[in-house]
Amino acid sequence: MQTVYQCFPGGKFKCLTMSYDDGTEFDRRLVDIFNRNGIRGTFHVNAGLASGEKSASSRRRIPIEAFKTLYQGHEVSCHTYTHPTIARCPLNQVADEILMDRKALEAAMGYPVRGLSYPNGSYTDEICQLLSHLGIRYARTVTSTHSFAMPRDFMRWDPTCHHKQDLLEKGRAFCALEKSQYLYLMYVWGHSYEFDQDNNWALMEQFCAQMGGREDIWYATNMEIVEYMQVCSRLSFFADSSCVYNPSCQSAYLRVGQRIVQVPGGAQVQLF
Ligand SMILES: [Zn+2]
What we know:
Layout: E1 4-7, E2 14-21, H1 27-37, E3 41-45, H2 67-70, E4 75-78, H3 91-109, E5 115-117, H4 125-131, E6 138-140, E7 161-162, H5 167-176, E8 184-190, H6 193-198, H7 201-211, E9 217-219, H8 222-233, E10 236-237, E11 243-245, E12 252-256, E13 259-263, E14 268-270
Parallel strand pairs: 2-3, 2-8, 2-9, 3-4, 5-6, 7-8
Antiparallel strand pairs: 1-12, 10-11, 11-14, 12-13
This protein binds zinc ion (ZN).
Residues 21-22, 79, 83, 119 line the site of zinc ion (ZN).
């Protein structure tokens, strides 16, 4: 029997994703940096605050009408409708906050919006249980793992690091990884207004220049990772692993011995 390993699309074993919250006007500059370097990510936004006016924190939010053009090629995802600290709220209000955000963002973007980042990093076990009933497929925390491991629980998706936490060093370590027996994920989060506040846009420019355009990295949005891992988990293998059926519509990629095998959606493929 040959060892069969799941791979990321294209047979890759490394993935980079970015996640930025609140949808302030500084996202424009951040999206531009991502786009110039082929880096992709997810923007977690509050539809109820996306009026284009300055908020209480005096940071201007991007108006929701501008989302579709600005965030093209990236993912727009929930961050609740008005950004409350949800661990303190009644669950019915948490449900409203998420569904109202989903509905407004879906109307703006024209695709299903099924991710979340917890506002103020706030959640409880009960909220985690509630999310799947509201159509949410993943939710990001603010607890850094400082590791490149895949998450165990997508409803408590701990990122690798905030961009203030040794970003360039972590990026270099990630690029140097060579042991393809693991799937590695580098997940960076933050707020674009912090670059303005801290006067360190050069940090993100340097990071994206260092990480972009590499053949061995899959650049994905948060939801693309969740969706792809589900494609892998739905594969139906023969008991001896010699053959596999892919019931999804998207291709899955496997490494069989030293070979990368693409298993197209709807196809059954002999592996060895
Ligand atoms: Zn926030």
